[in-house]
Amino acid sequence: MADPYATLGVSRGASEDEIKKAYRKLAKELHPDRNRDNPKAAERFGTVAQAYELLSDKDKRARFDRGEIDADGNPTSPFGAGFGGGGGDPDIGDIFEGLFGGRAGQQGGFASGFGRRPPPAKGANVAYRLRVPFEDAAALKPQRIQLRDGATIDLKLPKGVETGTQMRLGGKGDAGPGGKGDAIVTIEIEPHRFYTREGDNIRLDLPVTLKEAVEGAAVRVPTPEGAVNLKVPAGSSSGKTLRLKGRGFHGKSARGDLLVSLMIEIPADDARLTAFVADWDAEGNPRARLGV
Fold first, then answer.
1. b/e map of 119-142 (b: 16 or more CB within 10 Å)?
2. CB 75 within 8 A of CB 83
3. CA 183/CA 64 separation, integer angstroms
4. Cα separation of 152 and 76, whole Å?
């Protein structure tokens, strides 16, 4: 193997952080998942990993710098002290876990031995976008999706689902030498004509009549899982908010509520109502708290 310092593009006096930074940069650029059509990149990827494995081990690096071992970790003379002294092997899998979301050693990568070629690349992941009706998302109703190969799958939505949530379907992507890639499904929750979402809560402006607001009444209220009765207290004003517990979105730890804001609707051409208010002089100033 070539000089490991040259392979990583660092000087012989480079610090541990500089070596790690150089390795991470090259590993990202050369990883087989990003270079499926470039076998030379995969080859260089293996060389870079081997160079890092040597230089990240303090003992091996010191012995290489003294000329006791070569770039492949072999003794430079039959009287050398042997390979793999007191320092522990670096866990390249820890770095790969940060870079690519999995441990290289567990996938047959370089952490398990020198000179091993990278595992055959899996097929490409396939991206899907799934539009979910607002009420279905709130109630976590299973959603059916058709994949590119014609297969259909019923997806169970996770708690806390929101627009942008991604779901991974293992082995449902393109085929490759190392097996199939995954299907990545991005959720998009459709807007609703009268609900709005606030975190895990849902807001609803509910029209009520003047009589219902003045006298109080039991009224029907829509929820994502069907209509329920709601008691409107007597003397309610527009903007008063009532809470229906557990009628919102399923959060990761608890379910949100449905927040119902009462909106009194006044008929435009009601002669009796017009005559009533003409003779009615309400006391007080409802705008006093606004300073006017």
1. eebbbebbebebebebbbbbbbee
2. yes
3. 45
4. 60
Q: How far is CA 134 from the centre of its chain?
A: 19
One-letter amino acid identity for 100? Answer: F
- The strands making up 195-198's β-sheet, listed across from edge to edge, are 195-198, 201-209, 258-265, 241-244
Question: Which of 261, 257, 224 is closest to 239 using CA atoms?
Answer: 261
Residues 208 and 265: beta-carbon distance below 8 Å: yes
Say if residues 275 and 282 touch (Cβ distance below 8 Å): no
Token pair of 234, please?
């007597």
Backbone angles phi, psi at 39, to 5 degrees: -65, -25
d(CA 233, CA 237): 10
pLDDT band at 277 (very low <50, low <70, confident <90, very high): confident
pTM score: 0.57
Contact status, residue 41 vs residue 71, Cβ threshold 8 Å:
no
Residue 95 three-state SS? helix
The model's pLDDT over 19-54, given as tens digits with 9 standing for 90+, comes to 989 988 888 888 776 777 787 877 788 788 888 888
Phi first, then psi, for residue 69 (nearest 5°) are -130, 155
State the Cα–Cα distance between residues 148 and 129, nearest whole angstrom: 12
C-alpha 213/C-alpha 262 separation (Å) is: 9
Q: Higher confidence at residue 103 or residue 283?
A: 283
Q: Under 8 Å CB-to-CB from 292, ≥6 apart: which residues?
A: none
Highest mean pLDDT among 3-17, 110-124, 250-264: 250-264
Do you know the residue count of the chain? Answer: 292
